[in-house]
Amino acid sequence: MSEINVVPYIDVMLVLLVIFMVTAPLMMEGVRIELPEADAQPVAEDRAEPFVVHVDKAGSYYLNEDQQPVSDPNEIRVKASIVLRSNPKTPFLVRGDRAVEYDAVVKAMVLLQQAGVPSVGLVTESTGN
Q1: Do the domain assignments include residue 59?
Q2: Which of 50, 83, 89, 96 has the lowest tally of Cβ within 10 angstroms?
Q3: Residue 96: inside a domain, yes or no?
Q4: How many CA atoms lie within 13 A of 50 on its CB side?
Q5: 8: in domain
Q6: How far apart (Å, rounded) are the C-alpha atoms in residues 49 and 16?
Q7: Domain CATH number, residue 75
Q8: In this structure, how many other beta carbons lie within 10 angstroms of the beta carbon of residue 34?
Q9: Per-residue pLDDT at 40 exceeds 70
């Protein structure tokens, strides 16, 4: 018999698919932020990975997907300028919690401006209308 029986391979593939479907949501972690709702148009998708500054309820700053807050806010300015020099088309976003003081969000925007960022976007949740 010269044919290969592929049924066991399909069984293994389906089992792995189920395992990944169950474990994938468990692996997603991040900073808990409640975004303000706004009736705004979504930003056009770029190929470049955005540089995101997260501001949580306590006013702590997080960069991109980091789990640890930034120890010194000037670190945002330094890292943003490095990213800007390496890729000038990188989109820069600030994602502030709904309960955070306005001053903390503005401070993040000022730090990005000091790094030379030409424009900063604010991340909101869609109102669903």
Answers
A1: yes
A2: 89
A3: yes
A4: 17
A5: no
A6: 29
A7: 3.30.420.270
A8: 13
A9: no
Q: What is the pLDDT of residues 49-79, one digit of tens each?
A: 889 999 988 889 999 888 888 888 889 999 9
What total of structural domains would you count in the chain?
A: 1
Angle, helices 74-86 vs 102-114, to 10°: value is 40
Look-up of token digits 């709904």: 98
| Residues 124 and 98 sit within 8 Å (Cβ to Cβ) | no
Helix (H, G, I), strand (E, B) or coil at 40: coil
Res 96 pLDDT > 80? yes
Proportion of the chain above pLDDT 70, given as a percent? 82
Residue 81 corresponds to which tokens in the numbers above? 């300028």
Neighbours of 85 (CB within 10 A): 10
Note whether 30 and 39 are within 8 A (CB).
no
Residue 66: give the domain boundaries. Answer: 37-126
Tell whether 5 is covered by a domain.
no
Strand pairing class (61-63; 51-55)? antiparallel
Mean pLDDT across the chain, nearest whole number? 83
Give the DSSP per-residue string, 105-121. Answer: HHHHHHHHHHTT-S-EE
pTM of the model: 0.63
